[in-house]
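Worked problem 6 (solution included).
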Amino acid sequence: MKNLLIRIVVLLLVFAGGVVAFSSILDKGNTGLTAEMSAATLPVAYTEVEGMQVNRMQGYTQEMDANYVRDSITPLPQDRKLTVLIREYGNAIRNLTYEVRSIDTTRLVEDTQVTDFSQSDGYFRVVLPIKDLLEQGQEYILKLIVETEDATVDYYTRIVYDEEMHAKDCVDFMQSFSDATFEKEEADFDISKYLEPNSQGDNSTFQHVTIHSKLSQVNWGEMEVKRAGEAEVSIKEISPTATSAVLQYTVTAPDENGKSESYHVSEFFRVRYTQDRMYLLDYDRTMEQVFDQEGAQFGKQSIYLGIRDSEIDFKTNEKGDKISFVQEREMWQYDQTEDKMSRVFSFYDGKDQRASYDQHEIKIIDVDEEGNTDFMVYGYMNRGRHEGKSGVCVYKFSSVSNTIEETAFISSPKSFQLLDQDVGVLSYVNKAGKLFLMINGSLYQIDLASGSCQTLASGIKEGCYNVSGDNRLFAWQEQNDPYHSTSITVMDLENGFHHTVNAEEGEYIRALGFVDTDFMYGAARQEDLETEVTGNVLFPMYRLVILNEEEGQKGAIAKDLNYGDSGLYISDASVSNNRITLYRVERSAGGYTRTDEDYIMTNAAQEEQKVNAGSYVSELKETVYQISLLWPVENAKPKLLHPKEVLFEDSREVVLEEAADPSSRFYVYGRGRLQAVYAEAGPAIRQADEIMGVVVADNQKYVWERGNRKLRTKLSDLSAETIEEGKTSLSVCLDVMLKRHDIYINSQEFLNSGQSTVDILNEQLENRAVDLTGCTLEETFYYISNGAPVLGMIDGTNAVLIIGYDEVSVSYLNPSGGSIEKKGLKASSEMFEAAGNVFISYVK
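Solution. The predicted structure is:
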């Protein structure tokens, strides 16, 4: 009996040990299914300019559209020997070559293997012997190709070879100015004489400070701000007379209770160099608070976000107790019921500078009732599975298992700033797990479960589509012509339901936008359309229709406004809150003229938000932001969680069907980044003028630059011509423009055949024409300064050719009188403005 008991006890012990061992094995297996995001591995490169280390370049492990990677520009030294510094981070560099290409990448100028390199101060120091093949003052693309043991990595910067650029003088000025803001009254550098304080400056916030802010704002007010580490310098634009650059750094400052807080700062300068002194042309500084790494910051009934911009990306579940939000390129979730804060996603680790690279963004897509959140990270991937790639990565955060799982990755050769424009147009995930994206004029549907991709529509041009505010509804004109379409498709991306709106016989229709969930379009009679000399079309709509797009009522007419034969027409419409503004024109014998606006008040219900984002004023930090909560905070230090990534072996990369973008675009760069993209040059130039920026075309050649023109000039190789029989002033101006390029045609014949002035110039000058309609007269001087005359309309039918200007007057060829006339600048501006500011020129 005793032996039996001993045997039973032994068996029980063995069984228990087996259970423990088996459980341990299972636990180890589960642990292995998740992991923290892997650290950054790629080297980082810099260029050396006049002894300064500038223009940090992150490495790409995929082929990029190099002409759109406009992160920096590097002026070459006079001997064209460019020094590049590579921080290896443990990588063994096996081979290094470089390419120089034209700015549009179509022409390879040089392809050279590097042999001159050394190790110096922890850097791999490389000297690139750029060949004497560059045109002075012309920008090129430099691609540095680094081969390590594990990867081939590409680095990009623009380069330019010109006379002395004074880059160091300009950057030294910027750094002295920046340093002085911290030293305040004790600074030797007097920044006050460079500021232009006026009503344009917002002196209620430290988040955005400009050249128009008062001195105390630029000096951080009463905040005790200290810079943490050195500022990184990135040169954005440069010429022999002016340099634009961005300084990026981190600062710390104590709050009202003495607790240290961190901020990321970006400081933009545009500086003009002269031998006598430096001129500050523009200054723009932003600061964004880093969310507390040790846990959340709370008010009595709010999450404290601090100093940041006003566009707060956050979503909640229906109850409102689970809030996902983005702060300074990090995604967090606060579960008020469970009293926990999760740092869901961040590349930034507080240590490695590669992880802090800011060319990416996070967008929250949806939050379900359990707090599970779909979100996307798009742009440059600083570290992790897709390190060194550009694209869109879609994740799902599980609040129950405290994990994030990649559901799809879409690689893209576009830089972050261009991706930001596309993702900002449309990104939606429905309850069936289908992701919808609008990229390069194509609407894609991606099944996140299977990874399959379907193109729902392609070739959609700018001005031919609309997206509802919640991204759920998408409408596009089937003919892909903003002014000559006869059908519009409206699709509900949640359930795939779609219907088509058809034009009446003899009419065209145009999509105008969404009013909450209602779709708005306009109808015009085909005979009412008017084509201007530039080829632009005036689309006078006699009727505006609003369709209900709610479940069970889709396509039903909610409002039908018909002007009939009153002579009044709608030229465009915009929506703001519950008001629709109708921009109207009136028809007369001379054509269409602008008249008073009309308004429609809608009864769209404003959904009551249980959780809101808002601001208040702090005595120390001025305007700060917070997210309200459902009930008062009971614990100011909730449990802090760091979700891990779910590991998987299969590839979840989705390959999109490549489609060329059907739209020509104009890109506005200013204050260190891409500001906007336009379908027309005129609006792009207007914005660039406001921010002292530049405009480039699809081929990345300059269309317009603020400040880069002569003070006075006159084209001397143009002679006056008069109107002959069978010709018009318009055709005479065109003929004169083309004769300068030894092109002799009868432009009147082309005009009579229905071609516009822009069509004719594009055909004869290899697509170099630029429609400057909407620009001011002075904004067109850039073209004259660069050797191209500007055609301007002085009324509905008569044109002149502007050939010169100075501080007080304008010179132009007037075919009506067969002479070159000179007129005051103010009177000339008024004359062209009265005719609608219709201008046409071309890039050289």
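Discussion: The longest strand covers residues 260-273.
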